[in-house]
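User: Structure please.
Assistant: Input sequence and predicted structure:
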Amino acid sequence: AGPQTRSRVVRELDTDPPSGALLYVPGGSIPSLSVYLHRLLEIRIPAANLTRSSYEIAKRRLWGDGIYTSDSDIVAILLHTGKFPVRHASPKGIAGVSVVLRILNGEEYKYPSSMKHGILSRRWGGSAKYAIKIVRSTAIPLAQAELLNLKPQSRRGSSRDSRDKQAKKNPKVLVMSAPDKSYSKYAARYLLMNKHVSEHVFCFTSDGEVAVRSILPEIRDRGISGQDWSVNRLRNSVLYIGTDKGEEYELRPEPNANNATFQLAKVLNLDNELKEKPKPTKRKLRGKSGFVIQPTRRVPLLPSNLKVEKSNLSWEDLEWHPNQITVGQDLTLKLRYIKFRPNSS
């Protein structure tokens, strides 16, 4: 299959061999997307990059659900779609994974946010020129580790027939563009800071006792001193939990309980909870600067905006999992987002 021309649009089948192959580069981007529109591209990912501890997964570099923007990270997409079990540790016994993508016209699709397999994809409300979708994925055995040694092949001096035969036998080797230096610097710093972070992290109560096991990064204690414990952060802030049903809950210390017990309440109405009128706030969105209207919330919310679901909760009554929170023995909240907000009242 030769390069795509304006007069002929080639739509390869899902079972066809890919037209091009690339070696995965963390933070990199796929080149020549216009040439491979509606075609298949193969991304070969070394086993060392198949880990949840990557900078790209921590920063949730993926936009969409099932069909993603072309700048989404391939390993994050693998985790979100469940096409390959991405764990905290790199897989043993394989050299890597081969992922075949279809390049799509991005203007024909929408990119909603969704929580799947412990990772929340981002929503992209604008249009995208190109989109990608995983067609299939297969493991690369150790005996075929040479498949990861992709190098552009020079075809000068060969006849046209031999070049066509070579193109059918082996996909064209492309080179994934590397990220800029600032991205690589922050990614390396993140990996160094989280080198010794375990998959299972124990959180402390306000008395210094081990309370709950958390594998949710937002709830992990930030250090060994009391001021870095998540339970003590609730002295000056309120935790808001969004669910997959579009509901929102507020978790804060019980009034007049000296931060010993907590209250979980469901948010009912936000029409009257603003302290003041929204003000234009300058915010940077995916590299583009612009002014957006950002309302100022009252934290904590007024009692008229809340319905108390659980009261007199201890920190031990809360269990934090990658995609859900268990409160006591009879309440489970499927996570969509979680956010600490500082007290404003």
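DSSP finds five helices and 20 strands in the chain.
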